[in-house]
Write a structure and sequence with these properties.
Protein name: DNA-binding transcriptional regulator, LysR family
Pfam families: HTH_1, LysR_substrate
CATH topology of the largest domain: D-Maltodextrin-Binding Protein, domain 2
Keywords: DNA-binding, Transcription, Transcription regulation
Distance between the termini: 57 Å
Organism: Phytopseudomonas argentinensis
Family: Belongs to the LysR transcriptional regulatory family.
Structural class: alpha+beta
Length: about 300
């Protein structure tokens, strides 16, 4: 038994919650993972996992052992990195998931600079607005707009997106320009709805003008769960859009979108990088997080909320 492989297999089973998912993320067979964990339990003479037909649960001894194994694996990774020629040049594969408009308009166009700085980091980029199971899918980090709902994740705020409300000229010609946001709720006006995957509910948006505050959900003929499709629907005149300014600016300059409700203000949307708890923040992940923070400082810097 290779003790390193056995410890790594055990840690992945704990994190993924199943032998099958652990085998998939380690590119090994389920049988091999099972045998490694069984051999580890036999060597330690303790049961690390309780197995049923439906789930795998870590025992009290297994939980204590897992905490030490994670630290040990992290130390081994750091030791190997420090002894290589890549001490100042992180290497390896990073699995990242980002929203589709952010990928298309900001992240991907900037990646040549990232790879020039870190040529040995390989990025596997998932582009979606879906909810990602970071542990089960073995994703290193996600970049998301809005508050992180899963409080178990570690998260760093890297930016704040300013937003506005926009409509295509074709929509305004057909329906007229709405004067007050409430018209999106109780008149002929329509929005393009945006849904987070699995949420089943269209987003509502908080708007303020002086002492007047509203949470507007709006009525729609189309709701989508992808940012690029959302923008395309608005450009096609299917309804009014709430957009981060980075998504709207270019289209507004070309006359493809027109701002409405210019006298209303919006709470900035926070942008976060989130990553799994109890997961070693490797050098390659650390430099990627710092680089994204630098990128967001150029496009949508985080607002100092300390009051200083």
């Amino acid at each position: 038994m290779d003790r390193f492989d056995a410890m790594r297999a055990f840690a992945r089973v704990v994190e993924a919650g199943s032998f099958t998912k652990a085998a998939d993320t380690l590119h090994m067979s389920k049988t091999s993972i099972t045998q490694l964990v069984q051999q580890l339990e036999a060597r330690l003479r303790v049961r690390l996992l309780n197995r049923t037909t439906r789930k795998v649960a870590v025992t009290a001894d297994g939980a204590a052992y897992y905490e030490r194994v994670v630290r040990l694996l992290a130390d081994m990774d750091d030791a190997e990195t420090s002894l290589s020629d890549a001490t100042s040049q992180p290497r390896g594969r990073l699995r990242v998931d980002v929203p589709s408009p952010f990928a298309r308009m900001i992240l991907v166009p900037s990646l040549p600079a990232f790879h020039a700085r870190y040529p040995d980091i390989q990025l596997d980029l998932g582009v979606s607005d879906r909810l990602v199971d970071l542990v089960g899918e073995n994703v290193d980090c996600v970049i998301r707009g809005g508050e992180i709902m899963d409080q178990s994740l570690m998260a760093r705020r890297v930016g704040d997106l300013q937003s506005g409300v926009y409509a295509a000229p074709s929509y305004l010609q057909r329906c007229g320009a709405p004067v007050h946001p409430q018209e999106l709720v109780d008149s002929h006006h329509r929005i393009v709805g945006f849904k987070r995957a699995r949420a089943g509910k269209v987003f509502s948006y908080r708007m303020q003008r002086g002492a007047e505050r509203l949470d507007i959900e709006g009525r729609y003929v189309l709701a989508v769960d992808d940012g690029n499709a959302y923008l395309a629907a608005g450009l096609a005149g299917l309804g009014v859009l709430w957009l981060p300014t980075y998504m709207a600016d270019e289209h507004q300059q070309r006359g493809e979108l027109v701002a409405v409700f210019a006298d209303w203000q919006f709470e900035p949307m926070p942008m976060y990088i989130a990553y799994p708890p109890n997961r070693h923040v490797s050098t390659k992940l650390r430099v990627f997080i710092e680089w994204v923070a630098e990128l967001m400082a150029l496009h949508a810097p985080a607002i100092d909320r300390s009051g200083r």
